[in-house]
Design goal:
single chain, 4-stranded antiparallel β-sheet, 13 strands, Rossmann fold, Alpha-Beta Plaits, alpha/beta, 2 domains, 6 helices, binds ribulose-5-phosphate, 6-stranded mixed β-sheet
Length: 238
Amino acid sequence: MDQAEIKQTLGRAAAEGLVKSGMKLGLGTGSTAIHAVRRIGELLSQGRISGLRVFPTSFQTRSECEKLGIPVYSLNSPELGGGLDLTIDGADEVDPENRLVKGGGGALLIEKLAAYASASYAVVADETKLVEHLGIAFPLPVEVIPEARVPVSRSLEKLGAAVVLREALRKAGPVITEHGNLLLDIRFREPVDPEVLEGEINAIPGVVENGFFTGPRGRVLRPLVYIGRADGRMELRD
Ligand code: 5RP
């Protein structure tokens, strides 16, 4: 199977296996999570599930939901009341304890909101995302307000990170997030403690959020991870 087929299989399997009628559901962003969104659209249109209330984590996911007739709500709406039963999302890196790096698609802020507001959390990731240590191979995104770009970069360097401002591809200048911020992509040279760093990075003035997903204070995030192998096998790891 090529990577695109693995992503499709994973997204569809998570949707079919986990989504039940009436759920308050967070839907993630990216080329794997989009297949869960599409499968949910199919299941709804076939009448196999109903009564979903969906919280999309990005423009991409919201517009796909709207196209497919999947009802979307704000997390602040009375229909969701600030909480979700389940979120399904992709990831950029998964370590042996199922801790994550996310934000390759720049949607980490709302993705973390969904993940940490969910009773259950499922991640769909092909095997190229499995790593021993987070934040070394794939860069960790840090969302910062524009005015804080340089001071935050200096603070991150003091934590041992190499820092690169994420540049846009078909626009001159940087990527601007859906919240008007910048993304600093950072890499550590040596293994770090993601639980400690998640909090330390967020304590730097001007940082909005970072892409370590280890769990809200006092609660470890324990995602159910669907891992797709190149030979077509799919494993569940929790
Ligand atoms: C977006 C994300 C994505 O979930 C992550 O980048 C994985 O994307 P893909 O499934 O396209 O490989 O965190 O902000």
